[in-house]
Amino acid sequence: TLVAFVLAFCMEALQSYLPARVPSREDLLLDTFGACFGALSTVVLAQLGAIDRWSQIRARWFVPHSRGGIVLLALWPLSLLFPAAVPFGLGQVLERLEDALGAQLVDTPFLEWLPLREVELEPLLPLAELVCVMLGVLIPCLLGYCIIRSMLRRAIFALLVAAVGVSVTALSSALSYSPEHAWLWLTLPVQVGIVSALSFALPLVLIPRRICAALLLLALGVYLSLLNQAPTDPYFAQTLQSWEQGRFIRFHGLAQWLGWLWPYAVMVYVLTVVGSRSPQN
């Protein structure tokens, strides 16, 4: 409890350096309560054997040293909460990064150093959108294949990825556009993309983990290249403003940053794993 209080106090003290945040006694008490509740929950779960049970499940399902991959897979649904211009389209940051850099470098000589695009970004064609949706579902499947042991569990996992991805995207759409528009995003190209992803993912359960890692890196390259060649439309930009102002989920940018950085974190993870030890067959 003392450690939880100290951590909560430090967190509230550091928030005083953020212009948009004001430390308060209520926040300190709630943070302390949350930290204590988490610590006590861990003790209770350990006493009930839940942690040992999870260790057994992890040993049966996943290869050794797969902690990073498990964490990334657990974060994937959270990253889908933040609305995307293309369903399952994570990591679309190029346009906003250029705008942010340009705004910071205004009235400085460094502004001329920014590389300028020869042509404006064009909206994705339906076929390109289909490919992005397909890769957006296939990439977490391939990441799971890099750490999941058996072919049957891989197949179950692929179906679970599709179900969770569709459910969370529908929730994000409901939060963004109202519940009656929860399925507005599920257009024909998106439906074909999801079915195509499963059509590729299920046969790929047979391939070794080494090849899964190579295919994952290739898929990430194509996926990020296509997404970052497309602009965001004005209606989508207005939706982002509502989220960024904390109208729906007050995570102070956590869901947004997950949506931006998740594919790049996967790329770094796979490169690290391949560089440190080759995935086993």
Could you characterize the architecture of this molecule?
This protein is an all-alpha fold. Helix content is 67%, strand content 0%. The chain contains eleven helices and no strands. The protein has helices at residues 2-14, 25-48, 50-61, 67-81, 94-104, 126-145, 151-177, 188-201, 209-227, 234-244, 254-276. Helix 1 packs across helix 2 (25-48), helix 4 (67-81) runs antiparallel to helix 11 (254-276) and helix 6 (126-145) crosses helix 7. The longest helix is centred in the middle third of the chain and has 27 residues, at 151-177. The termini are far apart. Residues 246-252 have low confidence and may be disordered.
Annotation keywords:
281 residues; globular; 11 helices; mainly alpha; 67% helix
Spell out the blueprint of helices and strands:
Blueprint: H1 2-14, H2 25-48, H3 50-61, H4 67-81, H5 94-104, H6 126-145, H7 151-177, H8 188-201, H9 209-227, H10 234-244, H11 254-276
Helix pairs in contact: 1-2, 4-7, 4-11, 6-7, 6-8, 6-9, 9-11
